[in-house]
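Weekly structure sync, notes
Attendees: PL (lead), two postdocs, one rotation student
Agenda item 3: pending single-chain targets
PL asked that the sequence for the first pending target be pasted directly into the notes so everyone works from the same version. It is reproduced below exactly as submitted, 451 residues in total.
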Amino acid sequence: MKAHKLYRLVRQNLHRNRRNLIFSSVGIVVGICSFVFFLALGLGIRQTVASEIFPVEANRIQVVPRAAQFGTLAPGRRLDDQGLEQLRAIPGVRAVYPRQELAFLATASLDGRQISPAALELLSRVPGISRRAIDAVRSVRMWLEIIGEGIDPRLVAGDASAGEFHDVPDGEPIPVLLSQRMVEIYNASFAPARGLPRISNSLLPFLPSIPLALNHSYISRGGGGQVLRTRMKIVGLSHHAIMGGITMPLATARRLNRRFAGEQAASRYRAAVVEVDSSDRLAPVQEAVRALGYDIDLGEKRMAQSVGLLITLVTLGFTLISLIIVGLSAVSISHTFFMIIFERQKEIGLLRAVGATRSDIRAIILSEAVAVGSAGGLLGIGLGLLLCRGVDWLAVEVMPDFPFKPETFFAYPAWLFLGAIGFAVLFCALGAIFPAQRAASLDPARALTAR
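Predicted structure, written out during the meeting:
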């Protein structure tokens, strides 16, 4: 049978049996709707976890010193300049980015009364900053103990959006980065409760520098020595910045450690981020790192994998329920087509009598099922997307802000829609196979004389 004749005949049959087919395809629509919703939700949450909460880079590992362990013969191994050179010499290593913690005490103070009127006026011109927020800034009184570290500027290239991130001479504000996660927590909880402005990359250029006292503490007397009073300027937000502290250029940290804690503190590193040529070479590089006597910090990676696995299992569970709904609807489709075939026995017999083959009859029934599956799949996708948009709208209008709240909870890769249509068509076709086989096996003479 030619394609255009098959199309015309299928269209006529679908129109005649539209009520029965619409009723039987409700399960397909509901199943595909839930399939799209839950899978898009799982993918969206995984994307947020991977990009915002626990960003994991496939071709980078963090190497840390190995401490001597009680009961083992393995000695401790400190990470120093010689160790960095050994890491760079490992085959497959593209770059090594050292991190060095500040080995002395430091404090920061922020008194809104000391912020100049010009700085407050500049801040008030930022879109979204209300007069109430400016008044809240004026009333700020904070004195903080500061922890910090130095980081290789190459590792955070592009994160400094409000200034240069490099070592500066004494007397100039020290450029620092803040942790993206720490700022997210501040924006979602601390700032709204106190009416303070939320920190973002667009706000950073308007923020004044903050007083910083080095080799100083409000709690401990420290090791004595001269206190250096300077200022720091927040120039960017980064996932590589230390959580709960400030991150400055590595050269600045080394210079200050040498000044306040000695040469030994300036030549030892807390960690080093090792970048390999490709993720395929990650395993041999890890083995070489351990052979040198260092450990690999996999804490965040394991946590990200655990959270991702939990999200995957929950998503698979709901997806399985969706496919079960679609599978049950295939039974309804099968029942409907058996009923339609019974009603169209004479018509099928007439088609066979005028030359239609068994394959033609089978193609007609299966084509009708494919059309029902395609229509049900498209309608299910549409309803699923509407449900997703509704949840996103409720999240914006009803749900309060919370840390790492995404702009959307859903992700829509192309394969999601292709898979939804494919499953709808597949289950409809499976439901129609036995009715199609039965219709193809009808005897024309018996079908024409049947009452």
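Discussion points:
- The longest strand covers residues 228-238.
- The first helix runs from residue 3 to 16.
Action: rotation student to compare against the earlier draft before next sync.
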